[in-house]
Specification:
single chain; about 375 residues; mainly alpha; Cytochrome Bc1 Complex, Chain C; two-stranded antiparallel ribbon; 2 strands; about 0% strand; binds protoporphyrin IX containing FE
């Protein structure tokens, strides 16, 4: 292909993915409709993830008034928020619960958009920005976990970072040193310490929020420009107006989300779900506590990592990454029935590993 042809081709490609002529109130709001069918509930999940994200921003900003990102004061500042700041325990608890609920809704959103083939042309960019949002959502969880600087957090982060270094053993020649270098860049010093806390803090409160805001902007713009995908093979029974009908229903779902979050935040301290004492401050001379585990949303990879050879997991991760990034092209001709089956299978795997991962682990370890 000659250069002018290639430019024309690229222009046409982008014009189809970003039909800017539709960037007006009439197309994006007044004329927008949502298909009504048996999978329509899936259309609420992106909005729900967005709601929990907004809660995270609001509660995170409140926590910032008191949190101190230093190894000497981080733990004490979190204790101070919990025990002395009026409403501090509630805000902290809501931030912890909303992080889990946001990750849960994002995972459900991936599974339903996949099942409804919402990634297909011309929504490839919606999907690809979504894959980036998925990675960032997990990165929020990983970086946030270290901030209270307690025994479990620091040790779990050490293990997580160590896993990056282990990849080196499977790479040839000079490349074998790259994972270690990446780990040291993230860690900032020889062991997890002040430099690591500063970096995780910068990532958690500035770099990741700015990045997610930009990518989310493109994601939502492309959703608005294309309207909702039809969701099922065949024609949907009917359509309803996005504004005000679906929008009001969206707000109702957000209201339920808020009530669930508020009740959980008020009645069930997030930490009470853990069997180990979360509130021990990190002691560099202390031993790694027994039974140390990452947050529940990493169980799908954590238990297989404990049971299977490391190279199998790495291979699995590469395949997963390629499949996620290549979805719009790999499943271009797959019908929605097959996509639904794949989605249910992936959902079942996630549920089984999250709920029964520990039992399966003990079963195989004897
Ligand atoms: C921070 C995380 C995310 C937020 C806040 C978010 C938000 C949204 C919203 C509000 C919508 C429109 C309503 C809906 O269809 O549910 C949407 C649509 C969509 N999202 Fe996301 N999303 C996120 C992550 C993801 C991820 C991880 C993927 C996939 C890898 C993804 C793929 C899609 C697709 C393909 C659509 C179009 C749906 C359609 O046209 O029917 N999103 N997203």
């Amino acid at each position: 292909m000659k250069l002018p042809d290639a430019i024309q081709h690229a222009e046409a490609y982008l014009a189809e993915r970003f039909p800017v002529e539709k960037m007006n109130y009439a197309s994006m709001v007044r004329k927008k409709v949502v298909p009504v069918h048996r999978l329509s509930w899936g259309y609420y999940l992106g909005g729900l993830a967005l709601f929990f994200f907004m809660v995270q921003v609001a509660t995170g900003l409140m926590l910032l008034f008191y949190y101190q990102p230093t190894v000497s004061d981080a733990h004490a500042s979190v204790e101070y928020i919990t025990d002395h700041v009026p409403g501090g325990a509630l805000i902290r608890n809501i931030h912890a619960w909303a992080s889990s609920l946001m990750i849960g809704s994002v995972i459900m959103h991936v599974l339903t958009t996949f099942a409804m083939k919402a990634f297909a042309r011309p929504r490839e960019i919606t999907w690809l920005t979504g894959v980036a949002l998925l990675g960032i959502t997990f990165a929020f969880g990983f970086t946030g976990y270290l901030l209270p600087w307690h025994q479990i957090a620091v040790n779990a982060t050490k293990i997580g970072l160590q896993t990056i270094e282990e990849i080196g053993a499977y790479l040839p020649g000079q490349m074998a040193t790259w994972p270690r270098a990446i780990k040291e860049i993230i860690q900032g010093e020889a062991s997890v310490g002040q430099a690591t806390l500063s970096r995780f803090f910068a990532l958690h409160v500035i770099i990741l929020p700015l990045t997610i805001a930009g990518i989310l902007g493109v994601h939502l713009l492309s959703v608005q420009l294309h309207g909702m995908s039809q969701g099922i093979d065949g024609s949907p029974k009917r359509h309803e107006k996005f504004f005000p009908t679906f929008f009001l229903k969206d707000l109702r779902v957000w209201g339920v989300g808020f009530m669930v979050l508020f009740i959980l935040g008020l009645c069930l301290p997030f930490e009470s779900l853990f069997s180990y004492p979360l509130f021990e401050p990190f002691n560099p001379k202390g031993s790694t506590p027994d039974g140390i585990k990452p947050e529940w949303y990493f169980f799908w990879i954590y238990y297989p990592l404990e049971l299977l050879p490391f190279w199998v997991i790495m291979l699995g991760q590469i395949v997963l990454g390629v499949v996620l990034l290549g979805t719009p092209w790999i499943f271009k001709d797959t019908n929605r029935h097959t996509l639904q089956l794949l989605s249910v299978a992936a959902g079942l795997y996630l549920v089984v590993m999250t709920v029964f991962g520990e039992t399966i682990y003990h079963l195989f370890q004897g």
